Amino acid sequence: MEKSATGSVSTGKDNANVKLSVWEKTAYSFTDMAGNLLYVTISSYILYFYTDVFGLTAAGAGLILLVARFFDAISAPVWGSIVDHTHTKWGQSRPYFLWLAIPFAVATFLAFTAPNLHGTAKLWYAGFTYILAAGVVYTGIQTPITAILPSLTTNGQERMNANSFRMVGGSLGSFITSTFALPLVAFMGKGDDKVGFMWTMFFFGVLAVILLFLAFKGMKERTIAVQKPIPFKDSLKATVGNHPWYILVVSFVIYWIAQSTRNGISVYYAKYNLGNEQLTSVFNGLQVLGIIATISIPFITKITNKTMTMIIGLAIGAFGQLMMGFVGNNFTLVIIAWIIGIMGASIAVAMPFGMLADTVDFGEWKTGIRAPGFLTAVGSAFCIQLGSGFGAFIPSKIMSAAGFVANKTQSAHTLSAIHFTFIYFPVIIYAIVALIMCLYFRYEKMEPQIKAELAARHAKEAND
Asked: Is pTM, for the whole model, over 0.85?
């Protein structure tokens, strides 16, 4: 085992043909199941919790969500660099599932706790706990979830298979919180939503901790080149000329504006436009059907390619959204349209996570520096948080401008604004993302050449 010129250590083992066991891929799925169980609860219900339970104004809640994005801009690259510096007997990314499981659960619990505060103190408490849960600690969990994929195997198809397992786990986590969160709040609170949210988040937190512990135990990091700690400035160098990474980062940030809008506004649409907030559980509970689309991804990528698969997902998602806008109040047709939208969104949201592993390879090929932690932290956690933040802030500003007042009968103008934001705004976002992703085709064609040259480079380093 010899040190390479790039500061890495070659293991002498080519893991390009490593086939991951079903259990290991299942363990990988537990990471996103736990992450979504808590984070989707935040992205779906925190705005509603702030306005209708904690008593903040829509403008105040939107301000918190916007300010938090500046902290995300710092925490994502910092966490990425921390992961790149981590070297333990358990690996580089895997230890964080053990170390951050309990802090993640506790921080999310505090974010949905409504102490008896008033005025500025209430705003400061909400802001601090939101940044802690949805920013600092969640980034620490999300970063290794994506960063570990390039270390599990270099086999491209196995990466897509593992990523499909991960997205199925994420869909199940989303299904649990989307379907059962509000009913659990009503059941556990017995009319007191403050108490209901606290006990619901306690239950979800315990479940998330168990899942992350199982994920830690069930996975193994295998790397061809295990890097020594690299300075933060060298992590930045891995982005130089990494055009496919730029494309994914920009498109994923924009995509998550739509994803967060659909999740966050559904409760308002159900409560005020349809007259029954519990219908949110029906809308969001149907998200589990996205598993069907997620399972199909490896088959679609074999027929076409990864870039086209994502564009197909965006097109299907846009069709479903537009259909909802044309079917009126026909509940059956609305549900059918919503399911079509779910199928498309499930494909579109899954692809960048798997494709980021390829940009890690591109960065190493281009610069000689392999920085999976930094590249995937910015490419996943940062994108999700920034996009989700704007996906909550923009709707809050639209609703505020339209005269929204929590727990009151809304004007026709306000209801129209909610309808536009929930139905048509995501379609605009999907179209923009699809156009950006068209730039990725040329780089996907280069992947076989890049993998071959990296394999030759690693083999030479092993023999030196």
From this structure: no
